[in-house]
Amino acid sequence: MALAVATAAFAVTGLTGCGALDKAADCIKTADAIATSVDKLSQAVNSASNDPTQIEEALNSIDTELGNLKNTTDNADLSKAVDDLTKGVESVRTAVKNGDTTPDIKPITDAATEVGKVCTPG
Question: Helix, strand, coil shares of the chain as percentages rounded to 5?
Answer without folding.
Answer: 80, 0, 20
